[in-house]
C-alpha cells in the first residue's frame, strides 16, 4: 500500500458495517428457521412412533400405519438434516467462513415453503454480492478497499497478494495488481515466500497489510520487509497470541477483549502494538457472540491506524513506533467516535 492518491476506483458496495448487519440478521434468521425445522422433525418422529405403536396394537384395513410411520420418519430425518444445515450455516455466518455451505443452506431453504423461500432468496441476494464474498475470505482486505473507494483512506493499492487464486478481493483490483499462487505450486515454503516477496518488492509498497492472510510468514520474508508489515490480531496483545482468541479470553475470565494492530516480526504476534480497541466481555457471551462484537470494531481500528500510517504521522524506527516523531510507549486506543488517542 502506497500513501499516494488518487483513491482506487473500485465498484460501489456496502460498507463493512452494512455487510456485518446483513450477515448478523441472516445468522439470527437461520437460527430461528433451523430451530423450527428441528421442532417439526421431532413432531413428525413422534407421529411416526405413534402410528407404529397404534398398528402394533390394533391392525387396520387400508394403508398400513407402519408404512405411514415409515414415510413420516423419513420426512422427519430429512427435515432434521435441513435444520442442522441451517444451524450450521448460522454458525458459519457468525464466523464468516464456508460461504459455499451457507449458499447451499440458502438454496435448501428455498424448498421449505413461503418462510424458507423468503429466507433463501434474501440469503442468496446477500451472499452472492462480490463485497460480501470478499468479507468472507479476507474481511480486513474488503474493509481497506471500501475505505479507499469512498475516500476515507487516502492511499493507493499497488498490489493484492493471495495464496488462494479464488480470493474474492483479487477481483476488486485491476488484473495487473493481482498476484495469486497456492504454495503447492512451489517446491517448498521457502520458494513460495521468495516468489511472493519478489512480487511484493516489485510493487514498491510503503506499507504491507496482512489482511486475512492466515499463513505464518517465515523469518526471511519478515526481515526482508522489516518495519513495513502490519497485521491485525483479535486480542489485546500480548494476551492470547495465535488462534482461538475469543474462546481463550472467555476461559481466562477476561473482563475485556478486543483487537490489536501490530508490526509483524518473526515471532508470532510479538511485534510492537500500534493501536488497540477494547470491548467488554458479557456474562452471557459465548465465543461466537464475542467474536462478532470484536469483528465489528476490528475494521474501524484497522482503517484508523492505516490513516495515520499513510499520513506519515505513525512511523517505525528500529522497532519502536513513533507518533508525530515522538516514541509511542503504549498502544493508541480507539474511542467510540472512531478516533485513536494516546
Automatic annotation (TrEMBL):
Keywords: Membrane, Purine biosynthesis, Transferase, Transmembrane, Transmembrane helix. GO terms for molecular function: phosphoribosylglycinamide formyltransferase activity. One of its GO terms (biological process) is 'de novo' IMP biosynthetic process. The lineage of its organism: Eukaryota, Metazoa, Ecdysozoa, Nematoda, Chromadorea. Gene3D superfamilies: Formyl transferase, N-terminal domain. The keyword Protein biosynthesis does not apply. The chain crosses the membrane at residues 28-54, 66-89, 101-128. SUPFAM superfamilies: Formyltransferase (SSF53328). NCBIfam families: PurN (TIGR00639). The keyword Metal-binding does not apply. Residues 141-305 form the Formyl transferase N-terminal domain. InterPro entries: Formyl_transf_N, Formyl_transf_N_sf, GART. This is phosphoribosylglycinamide formyltransferase 1.
Amino acid at each position: 500500500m502506497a500513501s499516494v492518491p488518487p483513491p482506487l476506483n473500485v465498484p460501489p458496495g456496502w460498507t463493512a458495517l452494512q455487510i456485518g448487519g446483513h450477515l448478523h440478521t441472516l445468522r439470527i434468521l437461520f437460527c430461528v428457521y433451523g430451530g423450527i425445522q428441528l421442532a417439526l422433525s421431532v413432531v413428525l418422529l413422534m407421529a411416526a412412533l405413534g402410528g407404529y405403536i397404534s398398528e402394533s396394537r390394533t391392525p387396520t384395513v387400508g394403508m398400513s400405519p407402519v408404512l405411514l410411520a415409515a414415510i413420516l420418519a423419513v420426512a422427519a430425518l430429512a427435515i432434521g438434516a435441513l435444520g442442522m444445515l441451517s444451524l450450521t450455516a448460522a454458525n458459519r455466518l457468525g464466523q464468516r467462513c464456508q460461504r459455499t455451505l451457507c449458499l447451499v443452506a440458502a438454496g435448501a431453504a428455498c424448498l421449505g415453503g413461503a418462510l424458507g423461500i423468503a429466507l433463501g432468496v434474501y440469503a442468496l441476494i446477500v451472499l452472492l454480492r462480490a463485497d460480501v464474498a470478499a468479507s468472507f475470505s479476507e474481511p480486513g482486505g474488503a474493509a481497506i478497499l471500501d475505505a479507499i473507494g469512498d475516500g476515507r483512506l487516502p492511499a493507493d493499492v499497488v498490489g493484492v497478494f493471495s495464496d488462494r487464486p479464488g480470493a474474492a478481493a483479487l477481483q476488486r483490483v485491476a488484473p495487473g495488481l493481482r498476484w495469486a499462487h497456492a504454495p503447492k505450486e512451489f517446491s517448498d515454503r521457502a520458494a513460495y515466500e521468495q516468489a511472493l516477496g519478489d512480487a511484493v518488492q516489485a510493487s514498491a509498497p510503503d506499507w504491507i497489510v496482512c489482511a486475512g492472510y492466515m499463513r505464518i510468514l517465515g523469518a526471511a520474508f519478515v526481515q526482508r520487509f522489516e518495519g513495513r508489515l502490519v497485521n491485525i490480531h483479535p486480542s489485546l496483545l500480548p494476551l492470547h497470541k495465535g488462534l482461538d482468541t475469543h474462546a481463550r479470553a472467555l476461559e481466562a475470565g477476561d473482563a475485556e477483549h478486543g483487537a490489536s494492530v501490530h508490526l509483524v516480526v518473526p515471532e508470532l504476534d510479538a511485534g510492537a502494538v500500534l493501536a488497540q480497541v477494547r470491548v467488554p466481555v458479557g456474562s452471557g457471551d459465548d465465543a461466537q457472540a464475542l467474536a462478532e462484537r470484536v469483528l465489528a470494531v476490528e475494521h474501524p481500528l484497522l482503517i484508523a491506524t492505516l490513516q495515520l500510517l499513510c499520513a506519515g504521522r505513525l512511523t517505525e524506527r528500529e522497532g519502536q513506533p513513533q507518533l508525530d516523531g515522538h516514541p509511542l510507549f503504549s498502544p493508541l486506543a480507539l474511542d467510540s467516535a472512531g478516533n485513536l488517542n494516546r
